[in-house]
Specification:
Layout (H helix, E strand, L loop, with lengths): L4 E4 L5 H12 L3 E6 L5 H8 L5 E5 L5 H15 L4 E4 L14 H29 L2 E6 L3 H4 L5 H21 L4 E8 L5 H4 L3 H8 L10 H12 L8 E4 L7
Parallel strand pairs: 1-2, 1-4, 2-3, 4-5, 5-6, 6-7
The structure holds nicotinamide-adenine-dinucleotide (NAD).
Nicotinamide-adenine-dinucleotide binds next to helix 1, helix 4 and helix 7.
Amino acid sequence: MKDKTVIVTGGAKGIGRAIALAFAKEGANIVLNYRSTSPDSVKSEIEDMGVKCLTYKADISKFDEAASLVDAALKEFGTVDVLVNNAGITKDTLIMRMSEEDFDKVVETNLKGCFNMIRHCTKPMMKQRKGAIINMSSVIGIAGNVGQLNYAASKAGILGMTYSAAKELASRNITCNAIAPGMIATDMTDVLSDKMKEQIMSAIPLKRFGKPEEIAETAVFLAKSPYITGQVIRVDGGMVIG
Ligand SMILES: NC(=O)c1ccc[n+]([C@@H]2O[C@H](COP(=O)([O-])OP(=O)(O)OC[C@H]3O[C@@H](n4cnc5c(N)ncnc54)[C@H](O)[C@@H]3O)[C@@H](O)[C@H]2O)c1
């Protein structure tokens, strides 16, 4: 990973932060995308490891903002070697109460955002005939969940996108894989009620929530595995087996 350029979307906290730090530890320069959370503390942690970090504010659900993020990365570092589509949101509620906006926002961010970034990174990756794309799906996109129809649809869509990009881009030596995390301790899951957390815990064979660093290790592994493409790796303590 030394001197490679890695774009991490939504990298200012949670899983994205851990992924950015893990790639920096491997010697990669990081393009840390953020939307609202300040990226300053992550930037200095990254730079303390002796690599470069460009922070860039962009809403990746917007086609043009995603384009300017990729342009900024190319201007600063000249290449994009790894794209980690991590940015994501939830707007959980039961189907009967789910508004059109709840549905659209989640799909626009999680699914269209992923497309926007793949679309803009494909040209430079094809030109350099090398690249790795890692998309953050979820076990919810595989198994579904009560109150998460919008989120499940977006994360299942990411899987279809991953399989298609893997097939289409393979001839240019670009891999595309997905990670399906289970329950990882971040702000996204912190908002769940204790009752809900207990219920989820009872469905995890390893009997604990995952750590963001455990997802980051998988992302680095995939970026370093040129003969793995079109796969989904579940990192979920055994929540979904078989
Ligand atoms: N935490 C979990 O248990 C879990 C499980 C499965 C999948 N995931 C997925 O992992 C990814 C990271 O989740 P997390 O738990 O770290 O969540 P988080 O809420 O802590 O972080 C998400 C980050 O994405 C950013 N973001 C959201 N919308 C954006 C946009 N339009 N443009 C740019 N940035 C945007 C947020 O600002 C935030 O920094 C998400 O895609 C999430 O769906 C998380």
